[in-house]
Design a protein that fits this description.
eight-stranded mixed sheet, Rossmann fold, alpha/beta, 17% strand
């Protein structure tokens, strides 16, 4: 029976190592979800200025993010309200100046998350939701309903805002979104009980239930970070006015550059933000 005891010892070692891995992943999970770049306020505002963006300050003089005013005249009938960009899980807001270039006919505000760039705090679902809510309320009170754009992890706060405050939202564009963060984690770590471990769940399917649309979902066919099937499932489960765009040959980090002008104009028309009077630049 010696082999039985030896086998049991190995089983205990494996179980102990597995339990230790679960503890470490639980403690470090947000470091595996969010990858912020940090910098002083002076440095990030200088980087933003180089990218053609201006600082966006809140009522207390704290840096909320960055913005770019509209550069061309919108089409007749377009209210040209602001765009609120909720960016992905890496870098910081000033790195997303390309979204401002995609909306030359509207003022674009790119929210900085807590713990990103020069903004104090720590990133997490609760802190990002609060920052996004404050930003939406400010823009809506000042300029009327807002068009949302959520990129990757940013589809989480964008979906939550759209469902929680539909009266403040004219439409939403979700770039490489997912059904829930739990679903994505399960696909990447099928051997882990991620449903029990994850603190930040970003359940976009549930959060969008209160939003009537329009909702534009854009997925990259070759996306290995957030597989395109999650965006398709999100679109298929959405009960409001929604449309799906799938970009062949594109991956998670090249999607925006791979979008044709024709496709982008289709998306803008669908969400009620047609562009006229000039070309994106």
């Amino acid at each position: 029976m010696a082999w039985v005891y030896a086998l049991w010892r190995w089983v205990r070692v494996i179980l102990l190592l597995y339990a230790l891995m679960l503890v470490l992943l639980t403690l470090a999970q947000r470091r595996l979800i969010y990858f912020p770049s940090r910098g002083s306020e002076r440095d990030v505002t200088a980087a933003a200025a180089t990218a053609g963006l201006e600082p966006w300050w809140d009522g207390d003089g704290a840096l909320t993010g960055f913005y770019r005013p509209a550069r061309i005249q919108p089409e007749s009938g377009d209210e040209s309200g602001p765009v609120l960009v909720l960016h992905g899980n890496a870098g910081y807001a000033a790195h997303r100046n390309y979204y401002a270039q995609l909306f030359p006919h509207r003022p674009v505000y790119i929210l900085e998350y807590p713990g990103f760039g020069a903004r104090p705090g720590r990133p997490g679902e609760k802190s990002i939701r609060l920052a996004a809510e404050e930003a939406l309320r400010e823009l809506a009170s000042r300029s009327g309903p807002v068009l949302l754009l959520g990129e990757s992890i940013g589809s989480g706060p964008a979906s939550w805002l759209a469902g929680a405050y539909p009266e403040m939202v004219t439409g939403a564009i979700l770039i490489t979104p997912f059904t829930s963060l739990v679903d994505v984690a399960r696909s990447q770590f099928p051997f882990l009980p991620v449903g029990l471990l994850l603190r930040d769940r970003w359940n976009n399917e549930v959060n969008l239930e209160g939003f009537p649309g329009p909702l534009a979902v854009v997925v990259a066919e070759e996306d290995r970070v957030v597989p395109a099937r999650f965006g398709r499932q999100l679109h298929e489960g959405f009960r409001g006015s929604g449309r799906l765009w799938s970009v062949p040959g594109s991956d998670h980090n090249t999607l925006i550059g791979d979008l044709s002008r024709e496709t982008w104009l289709e998306i803008l028309h669908f969400v009620g933000a047609p562009m006229g009077g000039g070309e994106p630049r």
